[in-house]
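Convert to structure. Protein one:
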Amino acid sequence: MVEAQDSIIKIKTAIVLTGMLHEAKKKGSSHSRIANNPDYIINSIGKISLETGLRKNTISDLLNGKKATKLTTLLPILTALDKTLIDFGKHFEKISDSDIQSFKEQHKLLGSSAKIPIKKPKK
């Protein structure tokens, strides 16, 4: 039961963070990182990594629901995306069971596509 709950929390967190990243991407892009530039938009895993000091792999694992998020990791990511913990909570609570199921199916397909066996030609 606890393991299932942990899995759901990881997935919901991934859904929220991915959604926030997509929102940032819709705002446009900024290619130069200039200190205190109000037009600079953090809209990629790489930019989040630069801004927070977190590894790209860590951020990717969080966005894919592979890793549990600690508050000390979540807060810098939210700050980089110009979001608050309140914003996160509002999105988190709106996630439905069907959203969770869609996420699971999507990631199951992505995971299995890399494992498609290659048939050897018959001689």
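Protein two, convert as well:
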Amino acid sequence: MTEPAPDPPGDLSVDDYGRSWTDDEAALLGRWSQGDLLDGPHLAWAEPSTDAYVAPVLVDTTAEAADRALRNWQVSRSDIPFRWAAITSQTCDIGAAPPGSRHPFVQVSPVISLEGWSENSITTIKKHGRVDLVALTAPPSPGDWAVDLRVSLPVTKEALLAGVPRPGFATENDALAFAERIAVKFYRPALHSSLSEKLPDSLAAHMRSVRKQKPEWWQKLDEIRVRVLDGTRLRPMRVQLIFVERVPLDAEEREVWRSWAKAFGKEMASTAGSEMDPVLFQTLDELPSRLYVESVPVRESVSPR
């Protein structure tokens, strides 16, 4: 006789961990903002439990199978905490009033030391050249530090009640730039490696070789965007580069971009099988909104400002 399946576990909701806040607690939460630093915490992660590492075994009943499945997760943590973590949640979600009242946790990302990193790497991070690292502009300790957006941890708001916020960024503009980097990290579209990595690397090398001869040719450009005409962004068959001009480039300056795009197009055809269409030059005011929406920016900070 087949044994009936056991009842599934109850559904879990983040709302199960919410609570109301006193006026004093609300005032304490109101001190915190996105980009503030708190001490710690440990790095914690979910992983298969010890039971999951053993060879699969046959079970006699569905109850045993369900029990085994429910024991396949465990939470582990690092032996030591991070020195600091930066709040990545929006400031309005931190407080006790709506919409913060719907958020029992805040999200934080660890702060790491850049000691031992090369000067070029640190400069790249400070210029927002790494999508997953954001340099602090007001670190609590001397040296170079960065928020590591590769990891996000939920922290209960009770942890904020006893802590004292440390600003991680020196100015409002720095804090806004941090918010933008968080958005870019999670919003950025997935692209084929020829467009997400090889294209910006090729562009950066071209700029280094030509910049000294004509230093103004890149300063008039606002951004470079990639439009996939055939195929998908992960498997592009035909693409077009859109050069968004801050001010119109003259014919000679445009030729600098065209020569690089033509050379990269040949490389892309041989390595990715993609065809490069003729490039398009437009100021932001002239660029049709449809083309802007259909295109995505080349990895940011390749072009210095």
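The CA atoms of residues 242 and 267 lie 18 Å apart. The chain is about 30% helix and 25% strand.
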